[in-house]
Amino acid sequence: MTTAGVRATARISARDDGRGGTALPVLEGDGPLALRRTRASGDEARVMLVGAMSGPLGGDHFAVEADVGEGARLHVGSAAATIALPGQGKGEARYDLRLTVAAGGELRWLPEQLISVKGSELEVSSLVELAPGARLVFREEQVLGRAGEEPGRLTSRLTVRLGGRTLLDQEVACGPGAPGGWDGPAVLAGCRALGQLVVVRPEFEERLPEPRALGEYAAISPLVGPAVLVTALAGDALRLRRVLDEALASLG
């Protein structure tokens, strides 16, 4: 911890254990980022990210790094929502994700929502590097403000690369200081929960799902590669989760 805020990094390494399961030779976190292994499901290792203190606050810098080796399967969730809060430290908070998956490996990144509280400033950067033959389910959900509250300023960038080639690189900015019109009918249309789901599967090389709408504020879009993107808006976090869960189930 410094006067500029808290610096904390959590690291996960998943490897094929040679016995039909997945080992976790590295599972370490510090400060507010604690990692707990939970009961495995088949050959999949499961890890829960537990927030040991409030945050991120203004001036904090959190990072999570996960590396999935060949033949390993890793499922990462979180015990509760992440809440971006205003803090005494000057400047915005940062939350960086750096995820890598080797050929034949699989990562399911399914944390709880990120809530942007009034007065907070948070920049999120997520970089996913996949080798050819890797599998990915990546969910990102953001809630703008608590009940009846205006949001803080939230900027989020997600980049997904496969074999060094970019599948997706997009950024969204919401709240005070974001480009004008972010809350208008052409962007969020007054919705306060937004999310996306990226699914990468080798079998999509043979047959990529068709683009289609999922109700009024959600859609499945194929990417240039064995991947699809689901984007969704909703009035609240529960409705958003329902839409994304239904979209994932529809992909098989």
In short:
This protein is mostly beta strands. The chain has 1 helix and 18 strands.
The whole-number mean of residue pLDDT values reads 91
What is the overall shape? globular
The total beta strand count reads: 18
Q: Distance between termini?
A: 44 Å
Measured as a percent range, the helix fraction is under 10%
Helix/sheet category = mainly beta
**What fraction strand?**
over 45%
Low-confidence stretches: none
- Helical region count? 1
Topology as a string of helices (H) and strands (E): EEEEEEEEEEEEEEEEEEH
Main sheet properties:
11 strands, mixed
Please compute the radius of gyration using only Cα atoms. 18 Å
Region (Disordered): 1-22
Pfam family, one: UreD
Protein name: Urease accessory protein UreD
Function: Required for maturation of urease via the functional incorporation of the urease nickel metallocenter.
Describe it for me?
The protein has one helix at residues 237-250, and strands spanning 7-16, 22-28, 33-41, 44-51, 61-68, 73-78, 82-84, 93-101, 106-109, 114-116, 121-130, 135-144, 153-162, 165-174, 193-200, 212-213, 218-222, 227-234. By secondary structure, the chain is mainly β. The strands form two sheets. Strands 3, 4, 6, 7, 9, 10, 12, 15, 16, 17 and 18 form an eleven-stranded mixed sheet that branches. The chain has a seven-stranded mixed sheet with strand order 2-1-5-8-11-13-14, with no helix packed on it. Keywords: Chaperone, Cytoplasm, Nickel insertion. Belongs to the UreD family. UreD, UreF and UreG form a complex that acts as a GTP-hydrolysis-dependent molecular chaperone, activating the urease apoprotein by helping to assemble the nickel containing metallocenter of UreC. The UreE protein probably delivers the nickel. Residues 1-22 are annotated as: Disordered.
